[in-house]
Amino acid sequence: MNISHRGGPARRSVLTGLALATAATVAGCSGDADRLSSSPGGIPAVEPGAAHAFTTSGAPLLLQVLAHPDDDLFFMNPDAQHLVDAGVPVVSVYVTAGESVGQNWINGMPRRQPDKAAYSSARHQGLRQAYAEMIGRDKFTPWRKSVMDLPGGVRAEVDELDNGARKARLVFLNIAMFSAGGTRLPQLWDEPYAVMESLVATGSPCTSVSTYRHATLVDVLAAVMARYRPTVVHTMDPDPDYQVHDATHPKDNDYGACSDHRDHTPTALFTWKAMTQWVADETRRNGHPPRFATVSFRGYYNQRWPFNLPPEVVDGKHRLIAAYGGDPLWNCGNAGGCGDYGQGGERPMQNRKGWIRSTHYRYPAPAVHAAPDRSGRLEAYGVLGLQAVRWVESAPGSGRWGAPQNLGGGPLAPALACVRDAHGHRLLFALRFSSLEGHGRSNSREIVVLEEGREWHSLGNPEYRTERGRRVGVPVAVAVPDGRVHLFVRNAGKGLSTRVREADGTWGGWRSLHGQDIQEGLTAALDKDRRVHVFGLGRDTVHHWSQDAPGQPVRLMPLEGLPGPGGNQMGAAPGPDGALTLVYRTPTAAEPVAYRLTPEGGTEELRAGGLRALAGYGPLAAATVPRRGGKESLMLLSRSLTGALRLADASADTTAPVTAVAAAGLTLDADHRPCVVGLAPDATPWAWRPAPGTGL
């Protein structure tokens, strides 16, 4: 995060299989997104149709790429903290120097001349203080500092600190936010001849100035990935929402017509482009793409929606941000300063923008989707190395998985939708970065599908303009008994769009289902009458679309009497009486609420057992579990306040012994037992079936 004080598209043909296609467009939210250019600079694609086996699983490592010092602390926590607590080393790369106008001042301090080198140094020191606390060391513990040589003659400072299995590495590229001629990261992404330079921070061991062009930054980020070989990559939001700025929603630090900072978006785009280059290079060099998962986080989006973290989790974020902010009275031993003083003390908690009070995924969905195959083994699907993959359990109930089968299709956002149609054929849906290059060329997204027995093909985009098409969400799908498959995505207007695959396999066109102001993270379900329901979390209520009867079109059907939700994915499944039950958290609440849909189209609150055990935060999932005697129970999955996964129903609850990357999925295995499936920090899947005797 950084507060600055200055003020029908052309498409490439879709590549099938493993296609690391890249092309591009304007960073941020303004400019001519549809202009095309033949200027060079593209990343070579892996051969179409290739589906190379992945590298073998390695030691887990988290790599985070940030625009400014503190973006990780505000926007990527508590996820990073939980991985570090599990013993996962972390490497955080800061693209800019974060120097802004060089003022590190709070009330009570004497005014001094701006000093950008000192302010950058103070922010580096703040990060060292925060990460020392994150890994369990005293915040003033000395770090080892060195200089890393990178492609293009670039040099960067690297700071290292260990505490047993907990390890932190901070990499400072330190590109000046305001380079010569007022050049900033959006221009470096978009303009072919833009050049930026690094800033030498006070006291840094890296005393040389590095020159960056567009390709230089891509090469440097790809080289960092190749050096550290992460199994989890945290990125910022490459395609932030459009935002209306008015008296109710002042523009503040947003850029253009979007809800994010001007440096956040190109940093994310450069990161995604570097990931495609890393995958392409590794595949050509070794014959195997790297095995890693990706999680993208929203930025200033946090300010625009109801807060989604309970006070206990916010307090954990605040502890680290307060260490980063530091205090001018501290004696930290750093000549440039002891933190970013504007973020010290209680100031982040008092800031009306509330960035600290939420954590949002850009692509919210379970990292792995699983269901039993015809033999009773679990069959799971996810995204590794930007490609779709399939895992199969070695035997029913074993919890052991074979090697990932590369299904290609990429580069894909890290969230798939997976259904089996009435004929038993599997369909995978994904959001593809169909072009991603920069230099003013095409930068587009599309929804793609892999139908069993066929190759990947494009379903296009519900938006007609490329720049609007970047704002669409990840797909959600439902298969119904009449043979149809309903596909839904959140569109750029923050409403709902759909396409329907008929029983004969033909697809209808995109259709708007209207609605507005829903967050990303749709939930779809069938009720006991096999009617389709779709839910989206709005500002003041839960938005709802459904059918008057099975086979009828899906339409907007508002619900009455529901309290406003926070911003995490909700659970929906038939309850013990067969009525569809919704489970979600209200803003800042730890315990979820549950509401039953009544036959009259209304709702009534449930005092469902097991909800108290789910005090926590983050996405919720629900599934209906059969019990002895023909009864059914509603099973719920959540994260605890400490990040542990918990399963609960009306009679019991239990905690998972595993660590999950992003969200986990809840399914039933062949024996109708609840099973949680997720991705481990080493980018391998796991399956958790509560042991007999836990009451589940």
Automatic annotation (TrEMBL):
InterPro entries: GlcNAc_PI_deacetylase-related, LmbE-like_dom_sf, TAT_signal. It holds the Pfam family PIG-L. Keywords: Zinc. This is PIG-L family deacetylase. PROSITE patterns: PROKAR_LIPOPROTEIN, TAT. The keyword Zinc applies. It comes from Streptomyces luteosporeus. Gene3D superfamilies: Fucose-specific lectin (2.120.10.70), LmbE-like (3.40.50.10320). PANTHER family: N-ACETYLGLUCOSAMINYL-PHOSPHATIDYLINOSITOL DE-N-ACETYLASE (PTHR12993:SF11), N-ACETYLGLUCOSAMINYL-PHOSPHATIDYLINOSITOL DE-N-ACETYLASE-RELATED (PTHR12993).
